[in-house]
């Protein structure tokens, strides 16, 4: 089974809980360190050839929008729930932008959604 690589960019330099969830689901997480990490999402996704990127900020994912504009990643942003993030992944989005939701459940469920879409359940 493929190790799904997920990059996490959090405006306040967090994202550790989501990373634990990604790893719990058998994925690998890269948490971008430091303040305004969300704005580096596309760059780090590109550098690491990531499968998914998750951006967190108050507005709901400026980093996902930036990743889309700079690199052409399909993105959805201004999301406010785990369910919305999973739906975006199932619709083929590579960059997902949310408000502050650093939870293990989010990390675990987006990896599961990615596996469903790519036939790796």
Description:
It is built from five helices and five strands; from the N terminus they run βαβαβαβαβα. It is an alpha/beta fold and 121 residues long. The chain has a single domain, classed as Ribose 5-phosphate Isomerase B, Chain: A, CATH 3.40.1400. The chain has a five-stranded parallel sheet with strand order 2-1-3-5-4, with helices on both faces. β4 (75-79), α4 and β5 form a beta-alpha-beta unit. α1 (16-24) packs across α5. The longest helix is centred in the last third of the chain and has 14 residues, at 104-117. The chain is globular and about 35 Å long.
Distinctive features:
121 residues, 5 helices, 41% helix, Ribose 5-phosphate Isomerase B, Chain: A, alpha/beta
Largest sheet: 5 strands, parallel
Termini, distance in Å?
A: 9 Å
Contiguous helical run count: 5
What number of structural domains do the residues give?
A: 1
The gross shape turns out to be globular
Portion in beta strands: 15-25%
CATH class: Alpha Beta
Main β-sheet, spatial strand arrangement = 2-1-3-5-4
Query: How many β strands by DSSP?
Result: 5
Low-pLDDT segments, ≥5 res:
none
Q: Find the CATH superfamily.
A: Sugar-phosphate isomerase, RpiB/LacA/LacB
Radius of gyration: 12 Å
Organism: Laedolimicola ammoniilytica
Protein name: Glycine-rich SFCGS family protein
InterPro entries: CHP03577_EF0830/AHA3911 (IPR020034)
Short summary:
With 121 residues, this protein is α/β, with parallel strands linked by helices.
